[in-house]
Write a structure and sequence with these properties.
- It is built from 18 helices and 25 strands.
- A hairpin with a 2-residue loop joins strand 20 and strand 21.
- The protein is α+β, with helices and mostly antiparallel strands.
- 32% of the residues lie in helices and 24% in strands.
- The strands form six sheets. The protein has an eight-stranded mixed beta sheet with strand order 5-4-3-6-2-1-7-8. It has a six-stranded mixed beta sheet with strand order 12-11-13-10-9-16.
- The radius of gyration is 30 Å and the shape is elongated.
């Protein structure tokens, strides 16, 4: 086939297909132009989910006639002058393709008046052709109208979803932009009805409350990190407010809403791993302000993805601050100032010291990776009451120190699953399996760390067979099992034998535990060594006291005592709560005694 040179019209339509897939792309591009024009107020109007009309009005700086004429040409932009400028992008847009692409597939009008000028100008075009620019009146700022979107590209129209779906996508995108820019007021109308309104504010939490709801916002915890090259402002749900889906997870980089990169998603879920059940999700909004030279925003046509120059350092910072707050026994608002040494580059390893919050406790980082931060004064059950550590309930609050050992009263076991305990004016219900699992898990970690793992030797080694795929996984990880005290030897083609395992596991079906661990590792082929180690330990600890097991008084008291020596007493290793509190005051209110 002969090679043809495409017409400019065809080129423009192809470019439009990359930038403008659906109405929400138009809304996003036009609103971002308003933000780049320093608007303090932006209004969006749509009809028929943007297919018939999209109108974006702002009070920004506007354009003069020359800039207006250039604005719909391809690769015409006021944001950059040369390639080097891409390393210092402070604006939302910069490619110079948006208006050209939008105009190519719509009937397009722009009315604009530059600040300080007595009159304005109007540009009109039809599918990118028949461009005219004439004088017009109007207030300072810009009004952009996009009508009959994709009228000349019917193939694009047929791929659009229903009006309700497209409208929902537009509103969601608009909400993201509003969350990212609380200092700007936003309004949206659909079919002349108000569907969205947010007044400008200097308080991010107020904007979050306006958009995502007061019930969600009131339960958020906040942490800030400041550094010469990066600042983070993070709002996130705690242990007791996890969600059934990922709906409330947002990332904003330099006021730009972007998708979570895989490494950051992994970071967040790793931080929450022991704090919420595995089938629940955190709500989290991360605001990042960073030197533009440390990121690349030019890796996606719609600029929804950002690449960081030093992902590992960012991972460490976000993980540590979320983890630290989640494992705290109360939920302070934490602010961290990171004072770097002479080299302030982002690649410099971070030392997060001087953690302070409303109770004025100082925090320091541990060197191990399992627990991120702890109060400098070690948790000691002799100095603190059960109340001090039982804040796994709906209200996170501090209690005055009392003697733990003297005041506890074990009332017994109920439903074969729960331990009931009385302590002063509170009643506590412990999930015996969750509590025992937490105790065993941390004991296992501690013995490995201190190289004091006590072993239980088998007089007669246990032999077992496993599937070929399982055998391959086990052979590849047999050294790791042995390091963790589960001593396994090959005993044939797909056969193995167990000669010893950690004594703290007690009397267990060790063969079944190993097979379960192998299955877990096999399902996650990309797991790193640290993740595999944790899988083995967690799985081994599942054999702790189970629901239905009878537990003696002495066992119960020791388990509860050991639980509050743990670094994470509120949840089991899989994120389920260990206890529930009912106060005497609550009981008296229920029975109308107060």
């Amino acid at each position: 086939m002969p090679i043809n040179i495409l017409s400019q019209e065809t080129i423009n339509k192809i470019a439009a297909g990359e930038v403008v897939e659906r109405p929400l792309n138009v809304v996003k591009e036009l609103v971002e132009n308003s933000l780049d024009a320093f608007a303090s107020s932006v209004t969006v109007e749509i009809e028929k989910a943007g297919k018939n009309l999209i109108r974006v009005s702002d009070n920004g700086c506007g354009m003069d006639k020359k800039d207006l004429e250039l604005s719909i040409l391809r690769h015409a932009t006021s944001k950059i002058e040369n390639f080097e400028d891409l390393s210092h992008i402070h604006t939302m847009g910069f490619r110079g393709e948006a208006l050209s692409s939008i105009a190519a597939v719509s009937n397009f009008d722009v009315k604009t008046r530059k600040k300080g000028e007595s009159s304005g100008w109007k540009l009109s075009s039809n599918g990118g052709k028949n461009v005219s620019v004439v004088p017009c009146s109007g207030s300072e700022g810009t009004i952009t109208e996009v009508r009959d979107l994709f009228f000349n590209v019917p193939a694009r129209q047929k791929f659009l979803k229903s009006d309700s779906t497209e409208r929902s996508r537009i509103i969601s995108s608009f909400e993201e932009i509003a969350l990212a820019n609380p200092e700007i007021s936003f309004k949206m109308f659909s079919e002349n009805k108000t569907v969205f309104s947010a007044s400008k504010t200097n308080n991010k939490l107020e904007r979050i409350s306006d958009i995502l709801g007061k019930d969600f916002a009131k339960n958020l915890k906040r942490a800030e990190v400041e550094h010469p090259k990066v600042a983070l402002d993070i709002y996130f749900t705690g242990r007791d407010n996890s969600l059934a889906n990922k709906k409330y997870q947002y990332l904003f980089v330099n006021s730009r809403p972007v998708n979570y990169p895989k490494w950051l998603t992994h970071c967040v879920y790793q931080a929450y791993r022991e704090s919420i059940p595995h089938d629940m999700h955190p709500g989290i909004l991360i605001y990042i302000t960073i030197d533009p030279s440390e990121i690349d925003v030019n890796i996606h046509p719609t600029k929804k993805e950002v690449k960081f120059a030093d992902e590992q350092s960012m991972y460490d910072i976000v993980y540590k601050i979320i983890k630290n707050t989640l494992v705290s026994h109360s939920y302070p608002e934490i602010k961290i100032n990171i004072e770097p040494k002479e080299d302030v580059a982002l690649k410099t390893p971070y030392t997060l010291n001087n953690f302070t919050h409303q109770h004025k406790e100082n925090y320091s980082l541990r060197k191990d990776d399992n627990v991120v931060a702890e109060p400098i004064s070690k948790y000691n059950p002799k100095n603190y009451s059960i109340d001090k550590y039982a804040n796994v309930f709906a209200r996170q609050q501090e209690f005055s120190p009392e003697s733990f050992d003297e005041n506890i009263k074990v009332l017994g076991q109920t439903f074969g699953t729960y331990i009931v305990v009385e302590n002063k004016d509170n009643l506590y219900i412990f999930d015996q399996h969750a509590a025992a699992e937490r105790v065993r898990y941390e004991a296992y970690l501690s013995q490995i760390k201190t190289q004091s793992l006590k072993m239980q030797q088998l007089l007669i080694p246990e032999t077992f067979d496993i599937s070929p795929s399982g055998a391959a996984v086990l052979k590849a990880n047999i050294a790791l099992f042995n390091e963790l005290g589960i001593i396994i030897e090959e005993f044939g083609h797909n056969s193995f034998r167990i000669t010893a395992y950690p004594a703290l596991l007690g009397t267990v079906a060790i063969e079944q535990i190993i097979k379960t661990i192998v299955s877990d590792i096999e399902d996650d082929k990309n797991a790193e060594m640290k993740e595999k180690t944790d899988k083995i330990i967690r799985c081994a600890c599942r054999s702790s006291i189970k629901a239905g097991d009878s537990v003696s008084f002495i066992e119960t008291k020791k388990m509860i005592s050991d639980l509050f020596k743990c670094n994470h007493p509120f949840t089991c290793p899989h994120g389920r709560p260990t206890a529930y509190r009912i106060s005497l005051n609550e009981l008296e209110k229920f029975f109308k005694r107060k």
